Amino acid sequence: MTISPQPAGPLAIEELSEVRARHPEAIEAAAAQRASRGLLDASGRLLLVAADHPGRGALGVGRDGAAMADRIDLLGRLVLALARPGVDGVLATADILEDLLLLGALENKVVVGSMNRGGLQGASFEMDDRFTGYDAATLAAMGFDGGKMLCRIDPADAGTVATLEGCGRAIGALARHRLVAMVEPFWSSRVDGRVVNELSPDAVIRSMAVTAALGPTSAYTWLKVPVVEDMARVMRATTLPTVLLGGDVAADPEATYDRWAAALALPGVRGLVVGRTLLYPPDGDVEAAVDTAASLVRPAAWSVARRA
Questions:
Q1: Digits of tens for pLDDT over the chain (308 positions)?
Q2: Which of 13, 229, 290, 308 is deepest in the core (most CB within 10 A)?
Q3: Which long-range contacts (CB under 8 A, 24 or more apart) does 14-20 make?
Q4: Claim: this prediction has a pTM higher than 0.85
């Protein structure tokens, strides 16, 4: 019997399953060999593509309830997005990041690992969002830049306190490794049994105030917040570095881009973390959607790059 040698160099998508079965150690090797760049470049801005929704069982995009169920298709979209100029990196769960590592798509990219995926979409325990993904020690060992956590706060749901405690512990653990804790806060409630995030300015400000205070230090804490009305007042609620959450795919992309542009001009806003809106745009043109986002995050640099 012939045993396939351990792969050298990036793989093709169709090779992933075979390599995972025969050479799982290739993931650790790829992480050790990966070229990294640090969190912020000279511009101080950041554009990350997010792909951690499947880990919570959230596979839908717009009206397609299973858009993200095709992993090969999703990986192809991610590879395409990460290759575009102005895209700094990716935020995802371990399974997706390891595929991207093997594909060679994370060279000189910012990498943020998703940490708590236990609050499955639609589950009775959704608000008890356990840390079932990355831990700080593994993120550090992999040479990644930080960990992301979802922190939904529902005063009527007892599961919230476990999530708050878990986030506080994770923030402290990440800080000990000098890794960024990217916290995505929401004030939430159940409507007809379904968890709904409240998107008024007051609700977003309240969620920011609670999450900014979590953990033994906030030195490495960043916030990831939705774009809502009165963002100027929202951003006065914190001194922590903040990135904007892209949210669901919109029926009117141009209006979405206008809201992003206005929010990106505010003090304290460092960039965008966008997933489905860029990976599954209404017209199907991933490259164009990503390029538009990049032009909003770094308008001056993008203008120079386009002229060149």
A1: 344 566 666 889 999 999 999 999 999 999 999 999 999 999 999 999 999 999 998 999 988 889 999 999 999 999 999 999 999 999 999 999 999 999 999 999 999 999 999 888 889 998 899 999 999 999 999 999 999 999 999 999 998 999 999 999 999 999 999 999 999 999 999 999 889 999 999 999 999 999 999 999 999 999 999 999 999 999 999 999 999 998 776 677 888 999 999 999 999 999 999 999 999 999 999 999 999 999 999 997 655 455 55
A2: 290
A3: 16/75, 16/99, 16/102, 16/103, 19/102, 20/102
A4: yes
